[in-house]
UniProtKB/TrEMBL annotation, chain B:
SUPFAM superfamilies: GAF domain-like
Domain ANTAR: 168-229
Entry keywords, A to Z: Transcription, Transcription regulation
Name this protein carries in UniProt: GAF and ANTAR domain-containing protein
The keyword Transcription belongs to this UniProt entry's keyword annotation: yes
A Pfam family assignment: GAF_2
Protein source organism: Actinokineospora xionganensis
Entries under InterPro entries matching the protein: ANTAR, GAF, GAF-like_dom_sf, GAF_ANTAR, WH-like_DNA-bd_sf
Length: 254, 240
């Protein structure tokens, strides 16, 4: 592997950071929504992807968007559309990665999805399963503005990140029990709602946009070693004043 | 995933039944009884109960389908321990497919010894940070639910949450209230938060106000939420 030291090293460092960041979210009392956000952010950073999202099974026959690299509403719609059709749904159903190196050529397979994706300037899309022991619980979705397949090495890294996140979701107690999966997934789905409600509180109280509000919640939770969803719950129920979170100056523990 | 059709049919039937019950002005008690009945009919469980719990932990049993689940509820809330107590506190389902093998609640287990209870499935009734209560199911034989049964149970819990939130809503609007929230719900949740910040009201009232405004202006709730989150509509406009 006679690679020139610089780009290879940079790549390796970024990769290492991605796994360390993900592992950091898995210590002690971690929050699934936080773990998944870390995962999508790492993916945008590591791969040639301009947007990343993560859908989880809602166990009612649907897929629900749990994390995304951007709050842009048309992009959110594109992720969520895949509960009905698209690479994430196919990936979730088969448990295998699904790749469309040219979205424009997929108008037969996914008519609505491909039209909307092309309309937003995306050229290629990839979906990687969140899978453990034969059970698929969701899919990681990567969009690129460059035609072509995902590099095999990137695909392996994406799968490793997805596997790490999956183990994170299931490891809190014995990972082989179906009821634990349900407890975890359902808690995460409800926490997602609470976090959105809390973002609304902070956004209005502090005149912030939604992604700023999310970052404040996350920073405050980390600085106080408290789960993101617990901070969100306190904000929504009024036991933590929005001003305290908004005016809190984050101490980055890097 | 199992076959979602059966689950969807069972949940759709309950939804129609709840619209009829709440639309008649019969009130929440009848609706809650129908929810419990639907559980026993559509799921391999022998009994179901629903309790509402307030922020201070005060609990009121709204319905119990038989004496065994009634006793499960009363023992747990007297002792302050058990799967149904935990499900509300932890805001997540607590699912016990084999109660005899569970070690988390020793006093509760001792009290329940001799009762014909193999499994307990406890689900929080909630909507984000809005904690409403718990739905508790038991069955005589131990064992886990199939994917399809689980989907049915979750669909029923969703309806129970909206029905209990909806009993505060004026009649004639219950059909729209019990309709599943639109797929792009994110902005509805965010708008709920904005109203909390504007008026200093609890989340359930903020959500009710949002829906009421949508009904009274003939607008879809997601459009109202979109206008709020895009700052094209100020929350103060929703003052009542």
């Amino acid at each position: 592997m006679g690679q020139s030291a610089d780009p290879g090293m940079a790549r390796e460092t970024r990769l290492l950071h991605a796994f360390v960041d993900l592992a950091d979210t898995l210590v002690d009392d971690y929050d699934i929504v936080d773990v998944l956000h870390q995962l999508v952010e790492s993916c945008v950073d590591l791969f040639d992807a301009t947007a990343a999202g993560l859908l989880l099974s809602d166990q009612r026959g649907g897929l629900e968007l749990l994390a995304s690299s951007s709050e842009q509403s048309r992009l959110l719609e594109l992720f969520q559309l895949q509960a009905d059709e698209g690479p994430c749904l196919d990936c979730f159903r088969t448990g295998e990665p699904v790749s469309a190196p040219d979205i424009g050529a997929e108008s037969t397979r996914w008519p609505r999805f491909s039209a909307q994706a092309v309309d937003q300037g995306f050229l290629a899309v990839h979906a990687v399963p969140l899978r453990l022991r034969g059970q698929t619980i969701g899919a990681l979705n990567l969009f690129a503005t460059r035609l072509g397949p995902m590099h095999p090495q990137d695909l392996r890294v994406a799968r490793a990140l997805a596997d790490t996140a999956t183990i994170g979701i299931l490891q809190e107690r014995a990972i082989h029990r179906g009821e634990v999966l349900t407890e975890q997934l359902q808690a995460a789905l409800n926490n997602r709602i609470t976090i959105e409600q809390a973002k609304g509180v902070l956004a209005h109280a502090g005149d912030l946009d939604m992604s700023e509000a999310f970052q404040l919640l996350r920073q405050y939770g980390r600085a106080n070693s408290t789960r993101l969803s617990e901070i969100a719950h306190r904000v929504v129920t009024g036991t933590l004043a929005p001003g305290v979170v908004i005016n809190h100056s984050p101490v980055r523990a890097d | 995933m199992g076959e979602p059709l059966d689950a969807q049919a069972a949940v759709a039937a309950l939804r129609r039944s709840l619209v009829a019950a709440l639309g008649d002005g019969a009130g929440g008690a009848d609706a809650v009884a129908r929810v419990c009945q639907a559980c026993v009919q559509a799921l391999p469980v022998d009994g179901a109960a629903i309790s509402v719990i307030d922020g201070a932990g005060n609990r009121e049993l709204l319905h119990a389908s038989d004496e065994i689940i009634r006793r499960v509820e009363s023992v747990q809330f007297t002792l302050g321990e058990g799967p149904c107590v935990d499900t509300f506190r932890a805001r997540r389902p607590v699912l016990v497919p084999d109660l005899a093998g569970a070690t988390a609640w020793p006093v509760f287990a001792a009290e329940m010894a001799g009762q014909p209870i193999g499994a307990i499935f406890a689900f929080p009734i909630q909507h984000g940070a809005i904690g409403i209560g718990a739905m508790d199911l038991y069955r005589r034989a131990p064992g886990w639910l199939t994917d399809d049964e689980l989907a049915t149970a979750l669909g029923i819990v969703d309806l129970a949450a909206m029905a209990l939130l909806g009993t505060q809503v004026a009649g004639g609007q219950i059909d729209a209230w019990l309709a599943p929230l639109p797929r792009h719900r994110r902005e509805v949740h965010q708008a709920t938060g904005m109203l909390i910040a504007e008026f200093g009201i609890p989340a359930e009232q903020a959500l009710a106000r949002l829906r009421l405004y949508a009904f009274s202006t003939g607008t879809l709730i997601e459009d109202v939420a979109h206008a709020l989150t895009q700052r094209r509509l100020h929350p103060a406009e929703l003052d009542t």
